[in-house]
Hints:
Strand content: 5-15%
Radius of gyration: 21 Å
Number of helices: 12
Helix content: 55-70%
Shape: globular
Strand order of the largest sheet: 1-2-4-3
Order of helices and strands: HHEHEEEHHHHHHHHH
Distance between the termini: 16 Å
Amino acid sequence: MWSLQLRLWLLLTLLFGIIYAVIVVLGRAFLHVGDYSSYLIISIVMMAVQYMLGPKIVEWSMRVKYLKREDNPKLFGMVESLSRRANIPMPRVGLAQIEIPNAFAFGRSLRDGRVCVTSGIIKLLDEEELAAVLGHELSHLKNRDVLTITLLSVIPMVMYRIAWQFLFYGRRREERGSNTMLIGLTAFLFYFLTNLLVLYASRIREYFADRGSVALGNKPQAFASSLYKLVYGSARLNSEALKQTEGLKAFFINDPSQAKKEFRELAQLDLDKNGTIDAAELALLNKSNIRLNLGDKMLELLSTHPNMLKRIKKLSEYKA
């Protein structure tokens, strides 16, 4: 896993270098600010706003209702037990009132952590599978992935806003001439590139959280089965239900918009057709070679989550 960690740190350095460089160039050209510390302050302020408002936006979008122990003792006890094993503060436990079967974690820090399950997941998974999913989400909190992705996500957003401003409004400023169009096109290119890098970072953090769930004592086959069932549950929903959370799917344990395709792939692993992936089926996958075609590679490149077959193949290498 050290190679993934190294790639993540290099990615963070590159992304923050890009946004700092862009703000410096724009500041010198249009604001005539010569003090480089000013650009750093501007960058920090923009990220702080995203950081502070993020949890409220998630709560509102997902219709989160926080639970007390008496509301769901079993769920509350699972989160409490896994938190102790992970050696992190007990997060708030929430129920998101949406149909998509899934779970997610968010918060500004470890002490502000929140772990939520959707109303669609409770009846779909058995106890072991649900514990594996919760272990994945708690690992996101422990690894501070939510903070990382929150901060990274502001970078493509800033690039997009700059591109929009200079491409569609910059032309009104006759004194800028063709410079505004050039800056707008450059910003749009950086938006596309930084968005790909943020997606790559998101896929890396999913592998870390998968490994973290197993490290907390959850069985790899239980987690593989939970992914299989979540894909199945999302594949049954209509497109309108899936669109409800399109902008926040990076928070989920899997990408619901890819569910139909992923279910067709994962169903091949379920040899006895009992709706789960057991230890023997996972061991068989471990001995197989997973090769993606060009279409699958491109789809993964533009996704917040790793290819599901590759992801479960990686799970088959772990020992509980």
